[in-house]
Amino acid sequence: MTITPSCSAAAPLPSPLEAEVIAKLRSRLRRVIVDGIPPDLDTDFNLLRWIRGHNGDTKAAMTHFRNYAASREAAGFVGNDLYERLHTRFPVSQYLPHLGHCTLNDSVWSVEHNAFLFVERAWSQPKEKNNAFLFVERAWSQPKELIKSMKTSDYLLHCFAFSEVLLQLILKREKCQSAGKGPVQVIVIFDLSLINITDYLNPVSGYLKLWQLRAEMWQYWYPDIIQRIYVVNPPRMSGILWKLARLFLNERSCRLFEVMPAGKEGVRELLKQLPKSFVPGDFGGDFVYTGSDGDSAGCSLRKKITTADHYKSLQHYKRKGVRRARPTHKELLPSESFHIPIFLLEGQSLCWDFLSSGELDFHVYTNEDEFDMVYPLLRLATSKLPEEGTLENLVTGAIINHFNRFTFRRIRSPFLQPLPTLHRPTRLLHHTRGRGAVLVRLIIGLWSLDFSKLLVHLLRKATAESEKKRNLHAYSLSFIRHA
């Protein structure tokens, strides 16, 4: 199965019409972003990526750009030393042994394509073999263990951080080279040789949801940085995986994929598309990484996940020495949102946990400005583990916790709790009513050769049915104040 790509060479220079749209987008962003466009992002090529990636829709590009820029600042993913800090000071660092990371940066370069290489490999956890710009990061097999070891937010922050590293490498290249060469992009080789396809046949599984949320972040916040995605060593029934992927990829992203044939024929086809010196030896090329911090393809080896690595929920309350408040419920309609305003005193921290039966947008902001974020905007799902976190060293003032539902979602057990330096609790109960859809769970036990059509039909039917069912619930908020 071969998917015809949308382009075959380096990204073109902006046309006169695109130059006008770039100026229009820049002017609008400067009006709505209080501190202006971050200097590293305020380049013609970078804004061009946002315009092309959103198919010329400047309104959508502006909305996603504002969310991205504010979330990037809130997450701390800024600065020239970002890559080094990810290995030490960020919470992301504790999951690197399981998720792996690229060790090559932009060192594998194609002048013809004006792009560098990113390789991602599927892997089998027990064997713990290869991970892969020519960045090598592995897709994971035995994903049930992965979703037990980290929250959705942990995984998305990891993807967010390394996507930002990727973008910074692109921006640095563009700053150093002639503008006549055009926008820099990334070529991806995605190796499925070690994937266990049965791990991905449940379309409503928590681990497939992680792939969807990751894809959405990539499409919305890092548009048009990918030139081509070559899928190599596809397993049998790979058409099913492609049908699943199409459920959460937009049409522009789908056109980036080219699935190579299996075996030697696939190697020949790949080398017709890319220079041999650009392709790792594992895929029939000449490149071999010799660094001590990665394998021959240039990526860190991943550690096997054991039961000792499974995430233990609600430990952040114990670390703060406070008791978790009694959980309650809140239902949301599609596109409905609600805010939880809390006034924090100096020395207090904010701590939360919640469960949701569907996807949920969540972020924390201050100063009554939705883009003055102290916790980034993430689209979350809590199929296995609750979402929880702590914000410390916040300044005195009002903090707003924002939940937003863009599809059918039912939030279960949400509560937030500011934590002071002195722990003498006084509780305040606040009720808010709303209506929401009841989640319909699909369990598909038998698969036919026409599985993909059946799958899409059932998913759409389940969504439509769930939207018809409504319930009322109450939401309670309790928090601790200074004595």
Radius of gyration: 23 Å
What share of residues are in beta strands? 15-25%
Give the overall average pLDDT. Answer: 77
The sequence of SSEs as H and E is HHHHHEEEHHEHEHHEHHEEEEEEEEEHE
Which structural class best describes the helix and strand composition? alpha/beta
Low-confidence stretches: 1-7, 126-141, 407-414, 419-452, 466-483
Q: Roughly what percent helix?
A: 25-40%
Number of strands: 16
Describe the largest sheet.
6 strands, mixed
Count of DSSP H/I helices = 13
Distance between the termini: 67 Å
Shape annotation: globular
Word description of this protein:
- The protein has helices at about 15-30, 45-55, 60-75, 80-85, 95-100, 145-150, 150-175, 205-220, 240-245, 250-255, 265-275, 315-320, 450-470, and strands at about 110, 115-125, 135-140, 185-190, 225-230, 255-260, 330, 335-345, 350-355, 360-365, 375-380, 385-390, 395-405, 410-420, 435, 470-475.
- With about 475 residues, it is an alpha/beta fold.
- Strand 4 (about 185-190), helix 8 (about 205-220) and strand 5 (about 225-230) form a beta-alpha-beta unit.
- Helix 1 (about 15-30) packs across helix 2 and helix 7 runs parallel beside helix 8.
- The protein is globular, with a radius of gyration of 23 Å.
- Residues about 1-5, about 125-140, about 405-415, about 420-450 and about 465-483 have low confidence and may be disordered.
